[in-house]
């Protein structure tokens, strides 16, 4: 398989199913942002030592590839069978959130991102995930998409936030509360 085809040189690309769209289309922006999130999660994973967290992030990266392929499918579908996101994928994230959250002190304030590279990377992943979610919600207003996709992204951003708090606790980072000036 050649890396370059020259078909995208005019600013268009093909969706799964053969439909050509502009590279600046909302659909491309949506799954491109999911790709960006996947790369940032890979960077976060490279900074971790905990085997369980690494395995969870690899599972998430696999699910993000699935999301990307679902969003890359042309409206109306294609003949290609694609992997699917399931409720069990959301349940998996919720179990991981609950597992981490039960060991963390209750939140009393919003916290400022930072304190350790791992914590900051988790927050970068969370914010890119939120951007992907906003784009997918927008896409869903224009085209029919599987409603589980924005649900998964919403839960994933929750997971990444709790992971940032767990990493802060692991590294004994004191979370900096946001104290609004009035």
Structure description:
By secondary structure, the chain is mainly alpha-helical. The chain is built from 5 helices and 4 strands, in the order ββαααβααβ. It has helices spanning 26-46, 51-71, 87-101, 117-142, 148-170; strands spanning 12-14, 20-22, 111-112, 176-177. A two-stranded antiparallel sheet has the order 1-2. A two-stranded antiparallel sheet has the order 3-4. It starts with 11 loop residues before the first strand and ends in a 5-residue tail after the last strand. The mean pLDDT is 95.
Strand order of the largest sheet: 1-2
Number of separate helices: 5
Give the low-confidence spans: none
Beta-strand percentage range: 5-15%
Give the number of DSSP strands.
4
Query: What is the first-to-last residue Cα distance?
Result: 59 Å
Rg computed from alpha carbons, rounded to a whole number of angstroms:
18 Å
- Looking at how many chains there are and whether they match, the oligomeric state comes to single chain
Structural class: mainly alpha
Q: Helix content range of the residues, please?
A: 55-70%
Give the helices and strands as they follow along the chain. EEHHHEHHE
Topology overview:
Blueprint: E1 12-14, E2 20-22, H1 26-46, H2 51-71, H3 87-101, E3 111-112, H4 117-142, H5 148-170, E4 176-177
Antiparallel strand pairs: 1-2, 3-4
Helix pairs in contact: 1-2, 1-4, 3-5, 4-5
Give a nutshell description of this structure.
The protein is mainly α and 182 residues long. It has 5 helices and 4 strands.
């Amino acid at each position: 398989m050649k890396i370059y085809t020259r078909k995208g040189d005019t600013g268009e690309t093909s969706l799964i199913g053969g439909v050509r769209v502009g590279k600046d289309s909302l659909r491309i922006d949506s799954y491109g942002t999911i790709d960006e999130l996947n790369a940032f999660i890979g960077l976060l994973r490279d900074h971790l030592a905990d085997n369980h967290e690494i395995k969870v992030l690899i599972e998430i990266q696999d699910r993000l590839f699935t999301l990307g392929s679902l969003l890359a499918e042309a409206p109306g579908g294609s003949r290609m069978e694609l992997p699917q996101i399931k409720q069990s994928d959301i349940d998996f994230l919720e179990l991981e959130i609950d597992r981490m959250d039960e060991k963390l002190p209750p939140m009393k304030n919003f916290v400022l991102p930072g304190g350790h590279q791992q914590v900051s990377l988790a927050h970068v992943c969370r914010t890119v995930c939120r951007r992907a979610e906003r784009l997918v919600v927008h896409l869903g207003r224009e085209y029919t998409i599987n409603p589980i996709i924005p649900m998964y992204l919403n839960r994933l951003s929750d997971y990444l936030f709790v992971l940032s708090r767990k990493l802060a606790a692991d590294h004994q980072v004191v979370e900096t509360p946001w104290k609004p000036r009035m």
